[in-house]
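Problem: given the chain below (440 residues), write out its structure.
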Amino acid sequence: MAGGFNTEMSSDTNKQYNGRVTKFVILSCIMASMGGVLFGYDIGISGGVTSMEPFLRKFFPKVYRRMKEDTNISNYCKFDSQLLTSFTSSLYIAGLVASFFASSITRAYGRKPSILIGGAAFLIGTALGGAAANIYMLILGRVSLGVGVGFANQAVPLYLSEMAPAKYRGAISNGFQLSISLGVLSANLINFGTEKIKGGLGWRISLAMAAIPASILTLGSFFLPETPNSLIHRGSDKKAKLTLQKVRGTIDVQAELDDLINASSTSKEPNHLPFQQILQKKFRPQLVMAITLPFFQQVTGINVIAFYAPLLFRTIGLGESASLMSAVLTGLVGTCSTFVSMFIVDRLGRRVLFIFGGIQMFISQLMVGGIMAYKLGDHTELLTKGYAYLVLVFICVYVCGFAFSWGPLETKNVPIEKMDRIWREHWFWKRIVGEELECK
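Solution.
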């Protein structure tokens, strides 16, 4: 996190904050969500272009020859290349490193500067990728895109959650995941279209098209308002009140403002050392959830599908166009499922969706693995079209399960600093945090 804090109801838990979802909030969140679109686009675009033969011939000729000519190599090893892996993974590595710097900048200078830096990095990476003349330019462009991901993923979700009114925080925060899904879908559609362009320039257009959302994010960041939380944290209480009145559509925001100020004051106390406090027993639930939820979100395998869906479809026997079209279908399923999640998340609750989504993903992964293990030969034998499309169906089921559960979900209508009462009432965690409070 970037040192942010959320409050959605006054200290008196029976009194709700005033305010509504204003056009100002919606426009600001749409602009900020371009960071999610770019993240999804850069994930989706790489899998598509690496399945395009002109792209492979230019940058990864060994992989291309292996795919087209080598009949002795295993079907599971056709795309096994450290150089190709470097192209794919460099975005994530750069994003990981950049996130450490982004955290400090977002905390010290606000959410807007981080969004601006992210947008600029996306623009640079897009230019390098689209104009790449050699593998070095290509990977350098991916590194720049990774910097953009690191800053955007740090600032945008925080920005959305801080701008959203309590009642609609789940739906608006889910907007970031929806934006990622839209980015993946857009990338798959563009890859499907550009693959048919003669002359082998389709991959350049695919990589360069990210300049459109990158420009919107960069230019839009100049007009975005800073969040009231960030303004208060940096000592601008009066400006924060004016901003809060504007984004909530009412002048009666004192209850929410007081809680924001109190939360900020607490975070600045001399004995308030977050990295030491989080190791205390009373914060054990927060520490466990902060680590395990993002960890399991990643190891569900969604990035394998997002990055390598076209390559997977080519491996099991589909042609180049069919593989890209199949990736479009999975992207469409993910987008629709995320959109549905925005309407049901605050009604059913996160726990129910986590459980059902996890079961759905687990079963579909078993089916995909079972079909490929049983029907996909190690060398020449490929799946028949019937089994290939059955694999596609189960992958869509898997993507659907992720998109309405592990992908977008946060806490329901509960301020972050008031989560302690949730843990005290939980059947398991109350035995840990309850003892800590009793000792005091």
